[in-house]
Write a structure and sequence with these properties.
Length: 508
């Protein structure tokens, strides 16, 4: 790649950066489990180990350290969705400077709290980075404070470029490609500008979410594209428009941009956790998600690939969503809508057909006397395996629809299956527990037998030692003594719930 004046200047700025006053040189760690799975040597660049749990400290400190005394005296101001804010706040605290950070109201609380804890003044406004930047511009005009851009500044880019310098130094020449998350483009332009100057043979591949793909669209169009809307699941890269400097460098140095879904990002968070026992934020796992997708697309084997883990500032309550969607992102779970004949034993017959497959979810509520509509999750080996299962069920006479890629089903319908059932008579509700192991649900259903009609069934595998089932049975008053004896003989812990107010309000 011919070196332009901008790239030559970037190389100089990287080599003369001040990042190591505060940032640490992070390790390039082997991801052994993921490497075995993918048939390549996968290395994680652990930027989550920085003092602010993100690479952003590098660029922020490098910029602030090069300010003049007059610029510092006016105080520092920045707009950020979170990680840049922490980098600026940390750097300002180290230098004894006043810092004001404008953040979207949608910023995860863990990032807001971290910035406050570092002594910066936080202003929350708007729903996106663009809203925060617009208000930041107003404050700059009013106060004259010194602005530190989160990505489109030569010294910020150079600070992030030190990540690329460390990757080359630590990889000992055995390197085929580096995967980098993209928001505004500061990290990838710094890394790609540095690496391509010295090793043009190494691919530098960016990764963006489909719902925040400004760099992908800009490179495709040959000019910067401003998105009308961005999704904020991966809030660290939720940028409507990349920088003009970062775009110019990316045009010269980035080989391609891979786009990933939120489910694929969640699966990558799980992959990283399995290898490191660390929990990335969604943006921090994007590079790993893109690496996995690229390896599958290219059928790559025996290569050495680096994924930059860019940040780990995850709100704890977001883990619920991540855990729910990770199996879908890995194609380890298929979601199916199945119509069964409404008769005793139909559940058990279906589970027998599934064999040793693990049922992860089973939602049913009696709504008519002819057919039963089931929402089911089943563990799978791959997306193709899930599709084959749907075909197998259809061939066996079960009308089946694959809902694995249906966003409404994943977000809402799976939690809404149920409700009042006018057709149900003499319903008795019980909660059960049973040891969670392969085939346990089938064994449970076999023990239930077909003596009483099942009118409600809800089960979800939550990864615990015990499975939990809520089941309703149609049992006449004269059959109650036999039914109670049956529950005791089952041998599973159970709790009668027919008088539960939640049942009376929403199910009974």
């Amino acid at each position: 790649m011919p070196a332009t004046a901008a790239i030559t200047q970037l190389l100089h700025d990287v080599l003369t950066s001040r990042v190591y006053d505060v940032a640490r040189e992070t390790p390039l760690e082997p991801a052994q489990r993921l490497s075995r799975r993918l048939g390549n040597t996968i290395l994680f660049k652990r930027e989550d180990l920085q003092p602010v749990f993100s690479f952003k400290l590098r660029g922020a400190y490098n910029k602030i350290a090069h300010l003049t005394a007059a610029e510092k005296s006016r105080g520092i101001i920045a707009a950020s969705a979170g990680n840049h804010a922490q980098g600026v706040a940390y750097a300002a605290r180290e230098m004894g400077l006043r810092a004001v950070i404008v953040m979207p109201q949608t910023t995860p609380q863990i990032k807001v709290d971290a910035v406050n804890a570092m002594g910066a003044e936080v202003v929350l406004i708007g729903d996106s980075y663009a809203d925060a930047q617009a208000h930041c511009d107003l404050l700059i005009a009013e106060t004259g404070m010194t602005f530190v851009h989160p990505f489109d500044d030569p010294l910020v880019i150079a600070g992030q470029g030190t990540v690329g310098a460390e990757i080359l130094r630590h990889s000992q020449d055995a390197l085929n490609a580096v995967f980098v998350p993209i928001g505004g483009g500061g990290l990838i332009s710094g890394i790609a500008g540095y690496i391509k100057s010295l090793r043009p043979d190494i691919k530098v591949i960016g990764v963006e979410p489909f719902e925040a793909d400004a760099m992908y669209r800009s490179l495709e169009a040959g000019t910067r594209v401003r998105l009308d809307h961005v999704g904020i699941f991966a809030d660290g890269v939720a940028v409507r428009e990349v920088g003009h400097r970062t775009f110019a460098i990316a045009q010269q140095t980035v080989d391609e941009v891979v786009r990933v879904t939120n489910d694929e990002a969640c699966a990558a968070i799980k992959d990283i956790f399995d290898d490191t026992r660390s929990v990335m934020e969604p943006a921090g796992a994007l590079a790993t998600a893109g690496l996995r997708k690229w390896v599958e697309r290219e059928d790559a084997k025996g290569q050495t690939l680096v994924a930059v883990l860019s940040g780990a500032n995850m709100n704890f309550d977001r883990l619920r969503f991540v855990a729910e969607r990770a199996e879908l992102g890995e194609a380890r779970e298929a979601l199916l809508a199945i119509i069964l004949p409404e008769r005793p034993g139909a559940f058990r017959e279906l589970c027998t057909l599934l064999g040793r497959r693990v049922v992860t979810e089973f939602n049913y509520r009696l709504s008519g006397r002819d057919t039963a509509h089931i929402f089911m999750g089943v563990s799978t080996e791959s997306k193709q395996d899930g599709e084959a299962l749907a075909r197998q069920l259809n061939a066996a006479g079960y009308q089946t629809a694959d809902l694995t890629d249906n966003e409404m089903a994943k977000l809402h319908v799976r939690h809404m299956v149920g409700g009042h059932a006018p057709e149900v008579r003499n319903e008795r509700l019980c909660r059960f527990e049973f040891p969670e192991r392969p085939g346990a649900l089938t064994q449970f259903l076999e023990k239930l037998g077909g003596r009483w009609n099942v009118s409600l069934f809800h089960y979800r595998n939550h990864g615990a030692d015990f499975g939990r089932v809520l089941a309703g049975f149609e049992v006449s008053d004269q059959d109650l003594p036999a039914f109670r004896a049956f529950l005791v003989d089952l041998g599973y812990p159970f709790t009668p719930e027919s008088d539960n107010p939640a049942y009376r309000f929403f199910l009974g």
